[in-house]
Design goal:
The complex is a heterodimer. Chain A has one domain. Helices cover 6% and strands 36% of the residues of chain A. Chain A contains one helix and eight strands. In chain A, the strands form two sheets. Chain A has a five-stranded antiparallel beta sheet with strand order 6-5-4-7-8. The longest helix of chain A is centred in the first third of the chain and has 8 residues. Chain A is globular, with a radius of gyration of 16 Å. Chain B is an alpha/beta fold. Chain B has a domain of 134 residues: 3-Layer(aba) Sandwich (Peroxisomal Thiolase, Chain A, domain 1). Chain B is built from 14 helices and ten strands. In chain B, helix 7 packs across helix 11. Classes of the chains: A mainly beta, B alpha/beta. Chains A and B meet through strand 4, strand 5 and strand 6 of A and helix 5, helix 6 and strand 5 of B.
Chain lengths: 140, 393
């Protein structure tokens, strides 16, 4: 079985990964633009400021788009089939790619409220993923 | 305003059959396609002063050969410049606009573009999936979630169907439309008739995407020659003039695009129409980049050729098939001709020129005066719209 790909860590993204290990989802916030930023950047993509703050996300949002991978997965993910890849819109206004986990795959839909959960990948890397809020999508 | 409108034309095209040809090397494809294009242009090879080979993905050493002048030497050319232009699937459009700039400024007089790759037989199917689960996908923010290109298409298709109510049958009809054209294309990989039922009965890759709604990696090669409009008029009856172009880069990481059902096509098309002095009703041919059927539906709508949400019905009722009122992706696209990397889009550009030059044989569109073409690279990071025509309006 091919090993899972490990995301490379840059100095300016390290706080994000350190927090994920502690089961916290961090976003950047640009005080000058009053805007949340995801994914973590070296500079604000709008105003170029390097004075970006880290804030903890409420970790809730809605599924924007999703797909259920049933065949032809990358080697490292064949053992995970079927799995859901989704773009989630967080309440803070940013979008992120993720997996929807811990639910009936057939009940995932656009607009479904989701909340963050954390899956450990290595000692250093924990990935934020999402599951339906409360008891939606058949989660017991 | 000084634009690229009517400054240059494609005057020669070349292409080798696309498919699985283990005995045929990529350099042979490049040489054959380039020779054909020069011959088709009816110019002396010594008139070529610039060679632009795009990137081959199959083999880094072969790609370095292209960068360092192998085509020039193999063909016995004497040129001023050999350089690589590569923008993934959008290479076709980018090559053409760079060519137009080089020729319009007098930097170059005759440019030969070449593409050849061997993605059909130099790697296994799984290696192809693995290559396209990393190439152009964010290693930090998207690769770790099991993304690859079928997944990208699945996400976009799901959201588009959700917003527009487009049906699975309508999406499958795009594959059938492309196949009907490929049946008439001797260079296509898949030429057997295809039905909507067989598309919908093929296995699910990334729901809602079916296997027959996915392109197939292939070996192939294509080339074309671009000269000034003045020189083009000396050389051929029906040169394919560049009339308009526009483009937008909307994202790198797919998740960062706020609207996965539109991308930058509407803005790109507005620029291209304005430059050409044409409107959607003037368009005779839509040579739309496929790779997956969803991108032809989005382009039909965003280019103003159909109302939003109506493209699926338009294709299902046969409007884009041979004999229909808007022939679309008439080489069969990457879904039926095959996907050769950067060459998928180049084959579509070459097909647009072929139709305008009246050289499309059995699949020649009866009226081919103005063609609109799209191209996009990576995870559909950019939207390029190009308008070509047999006359300069």
């Amino acid at each position: 079985m091919t090993e899972k790909p490990i995301p490379p860590v840059d100095p300016w993204t390290k706080p994000y990964w350190d927090a994920a290990r502690e089961h916290k989802l961090l976003l950047q916030f640009c005080p000058r633009c009053s805007k949340h930023i995801f994914y973590p950047r070296r500079y604000c993509p709008d105003c170029n400021s390097d004075q970006l703050e880290w804030v903890e996300s409420a970790g809730v949002g809605k599924v924007y788009a999703f797909t259920v991978v049933r065949n032809n997965a990358p080697s490292a993910f064949i053992g995970d089939i079927p799995y859901v890849v989704a773009v989630v819109r967080l309440d803070e206004g940013v979008q992120m790619m993720t997996n929807i986990v811990d639910c009936d795959l057939d009940l995932v839909q656009s607009g479904m409220p989701v909340e963050v959960v954390f899956e450990k990948l290595t000692d250093e890397i924990t990935l934020p993923k999402f599951r339906p809020v409360s008891d939606q999508a058949g989660r017991s | 305003m000084n634009t690229l409108k009517g400054k240059v034309a494609i005057v020669g095209i070349g292409e080798v059959p696309t498919g699985r040809y283990p005995e045929r090397s990529a350099i042979e494809c490049a040489i054959l396609a380039a020779q054909q294009a020069i011959q088709d242009a009816g110019i002396s090879k010594q008139e070529i002063d610039t060679v632009i080979p795009t990137a081959a993905l199959c083999n880094a050493a072969f790609n370095t050969d292209l960068v360092t002048g192998r085509i020039v030497e193999e063909l016995g050319l004497h040129v001023n410049n050999n350089l690589q232009i590569f923008a993934g699937g959008a290479t076709s459009a980018v090559m053409l606009k760079v060519a137009a700039g080089l020729i319009a400024t007098g930097t170059s007089k005759a440019i030969l573009f070449v593409h050849a790759d061997k993605l059909g037989t130099s790697i296994t199917d799984q290696e192809g999936i693995d290559l396209f689960s990393t190439a152009g996908i964010s290693k930090e923010w998207e690769v770790p979630y099991g993304m690859h290109y079928s997944t990208v298409a699945g996400l976009i298709t799901q959201r588009y169907m959700f917003e527009t109510g487009t049906s699975a049958e309508q999406l499958a009809a795009v594959c059938v439309s492309n196949r009907k054209w490929a049946e008439l294309n001797p260079n296509a990989m898949f030429r057997k008739p295809l039905t909507i039922e067989s598309v919908l009965n093929s296995k699910i890759l990334s729901w809602p995407l079916h296997a027959f709604e996915s392109n197939m990696l292939a070996d192939g090669g294509a080339a074309f020659v671009v000269v000034s409009a003045e020189r083009a008029r000396d050389l051929c009856e029906c040169p394919a003039y560049l009339l308009g172009e526009g483009s937008r880069v909307t994202h790198f990481a797919l998740s960062q695009d706020a609207d996965l059902t539109r991308f930058g096509y509407a803005q790109a098309a507005a620029e291209a129409y304005q430059m050409a002095g044409l409107t959607p009703t003037d368009i005779d041919l839509a040579e739309l980049y496929d790779s997956y059927p969803i991108f032809q539906l989005i382009a039909l709508e965003e280019l103003g050729l159909c109302q939003r949400g109506q493209a699926g019905a338009f294709v299902l009722n046969g409007s884009t098939w041979p004999g229909g009122r808007l022939p679309m992706t008439t080489n069969g696209g990457m879904l039926s001709q095959g996907h050769t990397g950067a060459g998928g889009g180049i084959a579509i550009l070459v097909e647009a020129a072929r139709q305008l030059m009246g050289k499309a044989g059995e699949r020649q569109a009866p009226r081919a005066r103005f063609a609109i073409e799209t191209a996009t690279g990576g995870t559909y990071v950019d939207a390029h719209v190009t308008i070509l025509g047999t006359e300069i309006p």
